[in-house]
Amino acid sequence: MSKVILVGSPNSGKSMLFNRLTGLNQKVANFPGITVDVGTGRIQAMPERTLMDFPGTYSLQPISAEEKLAVGYFERALQDPEVDHVLCVIDATRLEKSLLFTLQVIRDCQRFGKPVTVLANMIDVLDNHGLELDVDGLAQTLQTPVVPLSGRSGKGVDELLASLRNPVMPDTNGAFANAPDALLRGEAHALSRRFGPGGELLVRGQARLDSFFLHSVTGGISFFLIMYLLFQSIFTWAAPVMDAVESSLGWMADALVPLLGNQVARDFTADALFGGVGAFLVFVPQIFVLTFIIGLLEDSGYMARAALICHKPLRLFGLTGKSFIPMLSGVACAIPAIYAARAIDSPRKRLLTYMAIPLMPCSARLPVYTLLIAAFIPAETALGGLIGWQGLAMFGIYFFGMFIGLLIAGLVSRTAEDRYTDLPFVLELPPYRMPGFKPLLRNAWNRSRHFVTKAGKVIFAVTMLIWILGYFPNYGADLGESWLGQVGHWVEPLFRPLGLDWRYGVAIFTSFAAREVFVGTLGTIFGIEGADENMVPLVDHIHASGLALGSGLALLVFFAISLQCVSTLAILAKESQSRSLTLKMFIGYFLLAYVAAVAVYQLTNALVA
Predict the structure, then answer these.
(1) CATH number of the domain enclosing 159
(2) Is the pLDDT of residue 57 over 90?
(3) Mean pLDDT of the chain
(4) Is 304 part of a structural domain of the chain?
(5) C-alpha separations of 349 from 35, 52, 117, 580, 581 in Å
(6) pTM of the model
(7) Closest C-alpha to 107, from 74, 82, 147
(8) Is 258 within a domain?
(9) Rounded to an integer, what distance in angstroms lies between the CA atom of residue 154 and that of residue 198?
């Protein structure tokens, strides 16, 4: 099977075009560093050919780790006999930015005899503003086919496919075959002025929005409002769907459990499946909303402005504005956030960002936070419903995790030995664009589904184990005397300083496999204890267990700081190339989380006494 590689500069619309050609759901966003690995899929109109989407890069002279990855892939692809075509995407609205890389690609492809097609993407933006790109003149000068198209609307895709079917073989002695980068840089500037559209209209439109979003006053206010609405929406938008999921699970349990003849099967279905796994599924709508809102900020172009706004305060902690994107991505999941840190040019700041990312309040923490906040914070509003106390509490615990991450990065940056190279902060501000809601909804759905399938396997395995240990040897008659109770009493002294009994100790212990397992474990334990009851929401079980306010707050603090994700540890060790650093972070964050939780418990008890 032949291969076609897709290359281009960041923000050129490369991943959106990849989705259109393959029908896959590659993540699309309007910020450098979103695509951090190679996407692969068959071209729908040409199933015998595989399309490979490489990470975006500004030049074949790499600076960041992500660019080094992209250039390494490209150099190997040129030597691969199965690669028979190169598609180079340029941003038609910002021609000069893309042309240096394009000329370098054409030069190297001429040397290796690989046909190239230049794809002038976002031609629809030029059409909407009455601007023109001299496609024929550019193609004649480049000695390479140039296809104007729109990855968003699909305009020009047929011409692209025709170019793949009838490639123009390059001249190995072409005009650029032996050109040095210095010459190509000047050529790119000249070609842009000669053939590119007049960009003053586009620049003026972007400048008007930037004058508001990057203003020293309105920019800061809008940033905090947007961040607050992000976390407030987790409760507000997801609440009706969460209630529907919980009601559906209760109805299914009431309908299914009585039909099972065997008592053990009935108890397992009610306690482990509906009580454990079902308690976790209730919180999936929040993960969908969280992923959708973050994608909305990325796709609109605002995320780069947020990074610029955050650069100055982040410098106080030894970080860079580019650290903001991986850190905010960590709100969804730490693993892609660690990959996204490749876009940070400075090795030193990249290392510090690695240390901050695990403290970002990821979606795996979200079910735990939601459960505890729902148990202790009233579902009331203020200012005519503008402020919800539960949403405000969620914003507070998210901010707390981020602040601790920044604090640790700042302390390390001032105390650790400086063994890493530092580089200046340079950030491209992409144009503002109307987000594509269909891809965003699809991405949020895929992310939620992936979370369920990935975490669901772990939760099912753990809840099954917890149910077996808690049900036997006395068939659930006395949970305290079960095998689980015996294990729980063994670990209870460790968590007694937090005001937690053995049941919560077991749930914390199992959550080191994955944070969200805490909810499933508690659901299984309380399900066994309440075997004679109908499906009861887990929040009601927590109220009935007598968990004190100080213990609930201590749990929130503990989960905000502790590093309880095996997958994150594995990726962190691989990306940082340091198992020692990963082990130190795991132990250090656990000790810090434990000490902080004990302090919060004691302080809360002193204040409410």
Answers:
(1) 3.40.50.300
(2) no
(3) 80
(4) no
(5) 20, 30, 37, 18, 15
(6) 0.64
(7) 74
(8) no
(9) 24
